[in-house]
């Protein structure tokens, strides 16, 4: 069952919010993400209310000033609570900080709630900001019979579907479908999927289709009703998980590329089913006897500062 929500402290008043559209495709679409300068005034109940009030699925709270070591603290929230990581939220935070810096190029280290340091960089391209960051190590394993038995029927997929469990912050299912048409036709039982993800302690399910002709990108849809997001417009961390999986299976770079040399990973289209096209890019740098380094990124547009009003009750 879903964990109980914390009681509201009754905080009220206007909260300045910067809306960032993260992971645009050709300068349009992307995932609207609320970015708030974190002054420590809001409690977690108030933070949970910001996404819906801002017209976003996620909100990222960015430390008002860098910490002693130079990193900037970030916290990610949906309506259901806090997340240890959020890929498109990281793109949004990096774009927001680049706007604050006002420079053509900017490097920034973020610190997530679990203490992980996220190294990112941005480049301004007119009104747009291209951001990328080190996603961190991805753990991959075969799903259990129980996991497949609960998740695949809820997704409407056969039990023979190709699937992996990938962990980056939190575990999630990666499931391949036969084609883009099959991906577009998916109509999961969201209530059953939400319960299954709660029972299995999973973030959600990332379904994807491989290209069918040269030059075509991967396509994906991410269903995460257990965290209050029936379908995500853009999920960069799950795309990083896909890149790690393709590298481990020998799909990238024609096999086993030389350690230390970056290999172009999949570029993945998302958001089409929601009317907001998004694209996420990846690269993979193989290590020697260690997990590969996956970098993930996207283009962002900072649309300006507004306010979300928290009301009592």
From TrEMBL:
Superkingdom to which the source organism belongs: Bacteria
GO molecular function: isomerase activity
Entry GO CC: cytoplasm
Organism: Streptacidiphilus pinicola
Bias (Polar residues): 276-285
Name of the protein in question: PhzF family phenazine biosynthesis protein
Lineage: Bacteria, Bacillati, Actinomycetota, Actinomycetes, Kitasatosporales
Pfam families in the cross-refs: PhzC-PhzF
Record's keyword annotation contains Lyase: no
InterPro entries membership: Phenazine_PhzF-like
Family: Belongs to the PhzF family.
Keyword field: Isomerase
Stretch list, region Disordered: 268-292
């Amino acid at each position: 069952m879903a964990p109980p929500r914390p009681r509201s402290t009754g905080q009220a008043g206007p909260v300045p919010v910067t809306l960032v559209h993260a992971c645009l495709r050709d300068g349009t679409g992307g995932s609207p993400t609320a970015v708030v300068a974190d002054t420590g005034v809001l409690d977690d109940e108030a933070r949970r209310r910001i996404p819906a009030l801002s017209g976003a699925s996620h909100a990222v709270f960015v430390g008002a000033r860098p910490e002693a070591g130079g990193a900037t603290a970030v916290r990610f929230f949906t309506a259901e609570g806090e997340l240890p990581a959020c890929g498109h939220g990281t793109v949004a935070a990096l774009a927001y900080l680049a706007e604050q810096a006002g420079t053509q190029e900017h490097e920034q280290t973020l610190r997530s709630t679990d203490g992980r340091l996220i190294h990112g960089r941005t480049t301004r391209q007119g009104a747009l900001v291209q951001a990328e960051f080190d996603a961190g190590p991805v753990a991959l394993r075969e799903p259990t019979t129980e996991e497949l038995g609960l998740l695949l029927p809820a997704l409407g997929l056969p039990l023979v579907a190709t699937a992996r469990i990938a962990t980056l912050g939190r575990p999630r299912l990666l499931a391949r479908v036969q084609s883009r048409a099959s991906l577009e036709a998916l109509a999961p039982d969201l209530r059953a999927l939400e319960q299954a993800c709660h029972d299995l302690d999973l973030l959600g399910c990332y379904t994807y289709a491989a290209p069918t002709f040269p030059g075509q990108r991967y396509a994906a849809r991410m269903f995460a009703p257990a965290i209050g997001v029936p379908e995500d417009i853009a999920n960069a961390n799950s795309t990083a998980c896909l890149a790690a999986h393709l590298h481990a299976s020998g799909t990238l770079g024609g096999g086993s590329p030389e350690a230390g040399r970056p290999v172009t990973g999949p570029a993945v289209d998302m958001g089409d089913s929601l009317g907001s096209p998004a694209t996420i890019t990846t690269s993979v740098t193989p290590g020697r006897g260690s997990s590969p380094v996956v970098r993930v990124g996207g283009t962002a547009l900072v649309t300006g500062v507004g306010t979300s009003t928290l009301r009592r009750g």
